[in-house]
Amino acid sequence: MKLKRNTLMIRARAKIALLPYAFIILTAIFISFVTDIRSIWITVESYPLGKALLVFSQVFFAIHLLIFIWRVVLCLKYKPARPCTNEELPSCTVIVPAYNEGRQVFDTIKSIAQSDYPPEKMYIIAVDDGSSDDTWYWLHQAEKEWHGRVQLFKQPVNRGKRHALYLGFKQGQGDVYVTIDSDSIVEPQTIRNLVSPFIRNDRVGAVAGNVSILNHKEGIIPRMLEVSFAFSFDFLRAGQSVINSVMCTPGALSAYRREVVLNVLFEWLNQKFCGKPANIGEDRAMTNLILRNGFYVHYQRDAVVHTTCPVTFGKLWKMLLRWARSNIRETIVITRFVFRKFRNDGALGLRINVLINLINLTVGQVMHVSAIGLLICMPLIIGPKMILGAALASCAPGIFYAARYKSDKAIWAFPYSFFWMACLSWISFYALMTPHKNGWMTRDLKTKDTHPSWPTSPEKGPFTVPHPLQKAA
Length: 473
Known about the structure:
This protein has helices at 2-34, 37-45, 50-77, 104-113, 135-145, 161-171, 190-200, 220-242, 258-269, 282-292, 313-335, 348-361, 363-377, 379-393, 395-405, 413-424, 426-433; strands spanning 92-98, 122-128, 150-154, 176-180, 184-186, 204-213, 253-257, 272-273, 276-277, 296-307. It is an alpha/beta fold. The protein has a single domain, classed as Spore Coat Polysaccharide Biosynthesis Protein SpsA, Chain A. The N and C termini lie far apart (63 Å).
């Protein structure tokens, strides 16, 4: 009886969270009827390029409305792969790259070791990428706690996440690689669910996990990101999975067919952009290589990982800027093969998604800059429209979250939309101007090292990736 009452209360709160979005939509409809839109258009057309901007904005809106409807249909068609039995499960290596993660990396490995997965079929490799805090101490504690199941390696200096993953890939065994960020926690069923698509479909080369926020109680930013992440994964990636073409396997949780990774490993490791080694976007780069080789990339909704997100504005914009630069780089890469025949079956859905991304990176940024110009020239006319637009933009993720999770947390989509417009909307344009920059930007010393030094690799001696890098055998 108590459980039923709690369920009803949760559903009631979710319905209450929907009310602001219903009000926003009704307000937009009302304003469209009472506002003299024609006079506004005439005023805008009086400015240089005003008429062209109006035409572009109408076409831009129409395209995105059609694409949104298409994505809703895809999302409704999505179904996760059925979990495998113990006998069906493949052997896998779970790779955890870590840098200045402190105690958190122990908790990450603990969640992996306690997974509902046959221990004889799962190997765990943790790589300390030259941390300057007590990360190595906590890795060593994990190795002692789960002796024989955890293998440790340490880079003598910080070389970047891509190199740490490479070390894990080279040392891994089994049929599947699973990569998990060192600031993330997996649920008991996560790894089982994540690798199941490989057994259900031999065309699957990679699987993206479902990323949620671990530290959602630590401030307003994590609360807003929780709703944003849910929309990004449970809506967008779910739809991409239906067309067999998820465009990014997240660093927080992904799985790869081992033989596919080994075929592209050297190219991935030595990727360059503007003549410089690429040290960002390793997840998106691997996804592109797997798609290019004709394999499917799927999303597994019930493979959940809880990851730590930024709690300050400074770290948030740096993370989003890094992602935006990676998006630009890898969009350029994917256009080199996506419009020719790269796999035997259809790829129309992927091509549509790539085209939309190209439009957003080009026409979208021009319109953004133009809108700011019009706002400066006509603040009393354009300002209210931008506010209403931001409110409308929050409706899709907000309504989706309330419907999917039956939670009143859906309301956080509303402030995040305004926060994005006021404080983060510059990121895409700035990334477009600076895609060549490689800085990770969010890496720092989290905790002071208060523990004694440990040998480079317990009972094995030092292990490092050769430098300069040699081609994989």
